[in-house]
Amino acid sequence: MSFAAFTIARLPQIKFGCGSLSKLPDIAASYGKRLLLVTGARSFLGSAHAPRLFAALRQRACRWEIVKIVAEPAPTFIDATVSALQGEAFDAVIGIGGGSALDAAKAIAGLLKPGNSVLDHLEGVGPELPYGGPSTPLIAVPSTAGTGSEATRNAVLSIHGQFKKSFRDEQLVAEWAIVDPDLLVTCPPQLIAADGMDAFTQLLESFVSTGSNPMTDALARSGIMAARDALLPLYAEQSAPAREKMAYASLLSGICLAQTGLGAVHGLASPLGAFFPIPHGAACGTLVATATAVNIAAMGRRDPENPALPKYAEIGRRFAMQKGLNARDARSFLVTSLRQWEEALALPRLSNWRITGADLPRIVANCRGSSMKTNPIVLTDEEITQILAARL
Asked: Do the Cβ atoms of 179 and 251 come closer than 8 Å?
């Protein structure tokens, strides 16, 4: 078997496992005593984990300031935070929370030392100047199982009604990713559903991406199977094994997407999240079954030799647990399974956020960003509209 050449971009050092948060104080203190903690307003700070972490940091003579993120990070928030902290020397930034907290931490860590506006580097916005760094060392600690942001090099920032874009550079990759499944205990079912579908979609889109390679395929397969086994049980009832599998799936989704790019679902999630108050995971979850069906149909019509078709069939067989299932039936089983997930996870339709048919041309016109470029087939505007219309 021969392999095409491929490149794997930089990854964080990873600590995975229940109780791994206990490793954070020593890791943080290894960078110095002055720390900046970026986290959500309530979920971590209101948990039993926070006082234990702070006590351990005090034992190591660490001092810290806290920045709270209460919504998806906007460029104005990043710039105001960086400006307010100018003149203070932080040895490391710790991001603890969901994707918004980690993305904010990533952007703040990247700009604390340079001190300039994030708009200088935001893709598709402003001058898009090269980022020169240096970045302050970042330790990323996810408290949800969804975005995989702890393993990526981009910070997603948005201005509601205008755009949702990335600040992206290799220097923004966290030095450490500490993935502790115990932090998922406080996640409500609705958040588990949305975040879990985000992770699964990232894994599936990475697997069939035009940027995939044998190494990412192996990781994506492993993550997809973990999510298959854990997402519905975790949504129904918290358990330690399900938390571990979903935390693992989320981590692998971040690793994979950072190497491969994504696809149509994430291409659409960007303008949907920019123009409407739809959570990113909910957008992914409500679109992935239909987008998968449209991709499969488009390849069947225009590109029947596309290597993504047997990959979709492979996942269908793994879902069905039938190695001998023919390719067409296997792909159909995958789509049917994802539609069943829509119902089981109570994923709302787009109309829940007052999206109507009149909005679709604007969404389609703004969906062809970086994610859409690695979709396994170039979809027409009509096919993209079909995906959205089916989920109104």
From this structure: yes
Residue of 41, 108, 94, 42 whose CA lies nearest to 64: 94
Q: Count Cα neighbours of 1 within 13 Å in the Cβ-side half-sphere.
A: 2
C-beta of residue 255 within 8 angstroms of C-beta of residue 74:
no
Residues of the chain with pLDDT under 50: none
Cα–Cα distance, 177 to 105 (Å, whole number): 13
- Rounded to whole angstroms, the Cα distance separating 7 from 40 reads 34
Look at residue 154 in the predicted model and tell me its pLDDT: 93
Q: Is 343:289 a contact under the CB 8 Å cutoff? A: no
Backbone Cα Rg of the chain = 20
Strands (E), the chain: 13-16, 34-40, 63-69, 92-97, 138-142, 154-159, 163-168, 176-179
What pLDDT does residue 15 have? Answer: 98
User: How many CB atoms within 10 Å of residue 104?
Assistant: 30
| DSSP 8-state secondary structure symbol assigned to residue 62 | -
Q: What is the largest CA-CA distance in the chain?
A: 64
Predicted local confidence at residue 359, as pLDDT: 97
Pairing of strands 34-40, 138-142: unpaired
Per-residue pLDDT tens over the stretch 152-201? 999 999 998 899 999 999 999 999 999 999 999 989 999 999 999 999 99
DSSP structural state of residue 23 = G
State how far the Cα of 283 lies from the Cα of 108, in Å rounded to an integer. 26
Residue 277 structure tokens: 């108050």
- Per the CB < 8 A criterion, the answer to whether 351 and 329 are in contact is no
